[in-house]
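During the second half of the funding period, the structural biology subgroup turned its attention to how the target accommodates small molecules. The most pressing case was alpha-L-arabinofuranose, which had performed well in the primary screen but for which no bound structure existed. We therefore specified the complex as follows and requested a full 3D prediction, including the ligand pose.
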Amino acid sequence: TVVTVNGSASHITPRLLYGQMFEDINSGDGGIYAEMLQNRAFQQVTPNTTAALYAWNTINGAGINVIADPSPVSSALPNSLQLTIPEGASGSIGFGNEGYYGIQINSGWTYNASFYYKFPVTSSFEGAATIALQSAEGQVYASASVSLIGSQTTWNKVAVHLKPTLSPMSTANNFTVTLNAAEAAGETIDFAMFSLFPPTFKGRANGLRIDIATTLYEMKPSFFRLPGGNNLGGTWATRWQWNATVGPLVDRPGRMGDWGYINTDGLGLLEYMYLCEDMEMEPIMAVWAGYSLDGESLPDDALDPYIQQATDQINFVIGDPTVNEYAALRASLGHPEPFPLTYVEIGNEDFFASDSYIYRWKYFAGNLTAAFPQLRFIATTYPFDPILDPVPLQYDNHVYQTPGWFIENAFYYDSFERNGTYYFQGEYAAISLNVSDVFGDGRLMYPTIESSIGEAAYMTGLERNSDIVFAASYAPLLMNVANYQWTPNLIAFDASEVYPSTSYYVQQLFSVNRGTEYLPSTVPTYNGTLYWSVTHDSSASTVLIKVVNVDSTSAPMTFNLPFEVASAGFATVLTGPPTASNSPTTPNAIVPITSPMTFSKSFNFTAPAYSVTVLTTQFV
Ligand code: AHR
């Protein structure tokens, strides 16, 4: 195959071309949000049930129960954990939390642990509670002592540092709070809002798990789509509401998320903005737009409060604190400067409710554009189906398909009219090999070389069409291997490790090597086996050529460049057997390998079977 490259760029690479799609789908709580205690504040549970105690256990016969507290720690957190120490008990007694399917204990870390306590009825008790990190078998790795006083009948916050002496391999550990039963027998004590934080990414308070955040950051993403996805709202009552996710943690009620578990909302709107700031990303932020996954669309005369809530959400992010109360709230929380924001998405996958989107889009886009003329609003129905007013200038397209579909659709956007409409490929992934039931049997557990190179072939098409495709993100982003709702995902993790997939490396190769301008070249054969994309980076004087070979045999290629290039350069190759995956049992089965390569104005390259390669050299 001969590829002739044109020296005149056809278009500039859009600023946000590669980024990440995020929603809490077993990825926020117990994932990127570094809080280690599950069910830390008994949010949204039914008091006096065993279910309300999930992730908690009793130690040495202590009575524990989640109560509807007549004097709760806050109105947002109405439930407390009530500990009752039986008469006649002896030894160390109390309760533990098993974390999010484990707790990593690292002797290099200092953990911040805290909780609130009160005695429901004043007592003469004065004694110590031991806060500890210990193995499931009871080996103590770190502990600290605090005094609890029986006359404390209003909530009092207790905070300690825990510094483990060992780094056990196992994450089957517990956070425990215990008392000396002989001293405390007969006492009843209430606890609320526990927390255990390890060090966080860039040291941010209430921040991110370092290893997961670092993996995301190393993809060099330009945007972060938040907060969904489906997690925008399963029902009207449980929809994501920005204002319930900001401010002190004790003022956040949490919500039943759309993926079958309770969201703490500790990773709230401000934390999302800090995440973007700390990773040099721009948010692509969604607003709830009057439709929930249960099928309910609000009527047109009921939308005003939700348009106002969306307006307030946007003002919280970009408003002027001197004139807007929600921008002032942001300033009071420590960030007077507005965050960068260009794109706001109105809803998610509203092709499921396209009839009502006709009026919902009209009112949301119309009012929000009037309030924020500097922003660009993204529609979420199928492009031009139905016809919307005002005419959307941006659409979000989603596709979950087979690797074969992605290869066949490497030219998907080539035929789109250049009519001033721009596209966000907001979700895409090769998820199955079963062409007749993509979401059913045959679903991949982890991305494979076959699925990832299918995506890569498609991505060469995204680059060729990045005059109209302004952003693209694989989805979903993160998967807790101990408890997941969707497969495959870009990055898997457990309580102590991160497992970047083959698709992660494809995303990283494309993102890190994206170039500033697209150079047209010989167009690949429709439904062929070789795909490519050529860009150059004018500031770094580099040419960046991505080559995807989806065939089972290697393919000789000749590239004819329009300019002289340095002879020294590199080839970074991701390749392997089609079924190969990175997983917890094979974490580094497939990683990109960079080798030196000799270039010239006209050079040969043999694309290995089942491979994605980035060729880079300097132009002179
Ligand atoms: O990425 C998983 C889900 O797929 C998203 O929540 C939704 O937008 C899509 O249907």
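Two results from this model are relevant to the next phase. The mean pLDDT is 98. Residues 556 and 606 are 4 Å apart (CA to CA).
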